[in-house]
Amino acid sequence: MNTFSAENNQKAIDCLKVAVASDPSYAEAWIQYAAVTSWAYSQRWGGGKEDLKDAANFAEKAISLDPEYGAAHAMRAEIAYYDGDWSKMYDAADKALDLSPGDPTVVGKSAWYNAFGGDCTDKEISDTFTNKDLPPTSFVSLISLAIIVGAVK
Q1: 3-state class of 6 per DSSP?
Q2: Rounded to an integer, what distance in angstroms lies between the CA atom of residue 51 and that of residue 29?
Q3: How far apart are CA 148 and CA 90, in angstroms?
Q4: How far apart are CA 80 and CA 73, in angstroms?
C-alpha cells in the first residue's frame, strides 16, 4: 500500500501543528514540521513559496531551541536546496556534518544536497557517479554509506 500522497502529507502537517502547539520546545517536532511542509512545496501539493518560507521558519525555530542539533541544520540545507540558495545550502550541510558526522540521516541529506545542488550539469553529475578515482570520503561514497546504513536500520 502506497501512503505517499498529498492527503497523507497534509495529515502529517496537521498532527505536527498540534505537536508544536502542545510543546513548543520540542525541536524534533519542529524539524518534522519543516520536513513535511518543505515536502509539500517540493511536490507542489501546497501553497508554493509560502510553504518553503514556513518550513524555513520551522527549521530556524528548531535551531533556536538547540543550535547544536545537526538534523536541524540538515533541514536548513534541504530548504535552501529547494530554494536554489546554493551558498546557504552548502553552509548548512557543512554545519550539519560538523555537528552530527555519525548520523546517517544527516550524512545522507548533506551528501545528496552537496551532490545535486549548485549549478552542475547532468553530465557533470553522471561523470561523478562513474569516476572510480574518487576518494572514499567523496559525496558519492557518503550517499552509498547513508543508503547502506539506512537499509540496515
Answers
A1: helix
A2: 17
A3: 23
A4: 10
Q: pLDDT tens, position by position, for the chain (153 residues)?
A: 457 789 999 999 999 999 999 999 999 999 999 999 999 998 888 778 999 999 999 999 999 999 999 999 999 999 999 998 988 998 999 999 999 999 988 988 888 887 777 766 666 655 655 655 555 445 555 555 454 444 444
CB 33 within 8 A of CB 13: yes
The set of cell numbers assigned to 124 is: 557533470
Please report where in the chains the cell 552542475 appears, as a residue: 120
Grid cell of 137 as nine digits? 570520503
> What is the pTM (predicted TM-score) of this model?
0.76
Amino acid letter for position 38:
S
For residue 7, give every residue at least 6 positions away whose Cβ sits within 8 Å of its Cβ, in sequence order, or none.
Answer: none
| Distance of alpha carbon 37 from alpha carbon 9, whole angstroms | 8
Q: Which residues of 104-139 are buried (b: 16+ CB within 10 A; e: fewer)?
A: bbbbbbbbbbbbebeeeeeeeeeeeeeeeeeeeebb
Cβ atoms of residues 96 and 71 within 8 Å: yes
